[in-house]
């Protein structure tokens, strides 16, 4: 590549790595935007946005945030998706509205021992001279990218971890008022999520049997968390039972069953919250869910006009 000509085609890149996981698991790491955001960038870079429609003809779009704060978008489509065997996607990379290069990526998955050999083949067509330097560093970039993929694959092969906790609080407010704060959209918005700089992207609640609740928010570091619940049992002023999923950046991290029981106590209300959860794909809760729930109940108390001694949890992103 001593001379540069727009549309020139350098030698393709070929990278290969063996992962200690079945082909289906390594293949799954490509299947959603939530997974792609965890690993599809070299060391020092991140993926703040991605769109993945995992089928032939589906969209594959990735925004890569560079160390200098600039963003490079790769936009294209899947040409071929053969489960646990082969992926082909084609697209182009732009920066500041200028097309840098087109690339066709072919990924194959093969059994090797007890693991999987994944091979990446990339063919380029260059349109901007500055892109030559990026492509020249592609081998090292893919090496550190596959390091990140290895970390995700390890998580995806980690068994689910189970946990449970019970929290009890006594409020001076009567049961009807506490129940209203737990189930009314306007009242619940005063305490459930939205603190510590979280931007609420979506909020809705239907606290009836078969109804759903969803709260999605973006944290200052760019992390997007989503609480998605389904109500099973609703007895006004007495009990709520619902199951919910938690997602971080589109990846499901847990599934939980929560029971909230209300009873008269000391002229007010005793609330007993019991939660049983399964933490998935290597997500390490380390007590953050219980701590975050206690923090939210402190905010509930404050919304009812009662003082709260609960301090903000150290890791709030794991709990909506």
What does this entry look like structurally?
- There is one protein chain.
- This protein has a 7-stranded antiparallel β-sheet with strand order 1-7-6-5-4-3-2. Strands 8-14-13-12-11-10-9 form a 7-stranded antiparallel β-sheet.
- The protein is of the alpha+beta class.
- It contains 7 helices and 14 strands.
- Helix content is 21%, strand content 45%.
- The longest helix is centred in the middle third of the chain and has 19 residues.
Brief characterization of the structure:
This protein is an alpha+beta fold and 320 residues long.
Helix content: 10-25%
* Low-pLDDT regions: 309-320
Q: What is the structural class?
A: alpha+beta
Strand order of the largest sheet: 1-7-6-5-4-3-2
Largest sheet: 7 strands, antiparallel
CATH superfamily of the largest domain: START domain
Number of strands: 14
Task: Please name the CATH topology of the largest domain.
Answer: Alpha-D-Glucose-1,6-Bisphosphate, Chain A, domain 4
Inertia-based shape: elongated
User: Proportion of β residues?
Assistant: over 45%
Helix and strand arrangement:
Blueprint lengths: L12 E7 L3 H6 L4 H7 L6 E7 L6 E7 L5 E12 L3 E10 L2 E15 L2 E12 L4 H6 L1 H19 L4 E11 L3 H9 L1 H4 L10 E7 L6 E7 L5 E12 L3 E10 L2 E15 L2 E12 L8 H16 L17
Antiparallel strand pairs: 1-7, 2-3, 3-4, 4-5, 5-6, 6-7, 8-14, 9-10, 10-11, 11-12, 12-13, 13-14
